[in-house]
Write a structure and sequence with these properties.
By secondary structure, the chain is mostly helical. It has three helices and no strands. The protein folds into two domains: about 35 residues, no CATH class; about 25 residues.
Length: about 70
Amino acid sequence: MTLRLSPTEDETLARLARQFRMSKNQAAAQAIDLAAPKRDHAEFVHRSTTRLLARYSGLMERLAEV
């Protein structure tokens, strides 16, 4: 597969690859994987929100009183 990038995009990809010590191909693949919607994303958001609300409920109540 050939990926056609503008010079700016190519430099951004090269910078990411250097930063994470991987090839530009690996950096592009990882970026695609992170950006692509996941089928279980809604469930992940729900679980995360529930967990964080339980963890910080006392703090949020105190902040609401201010």
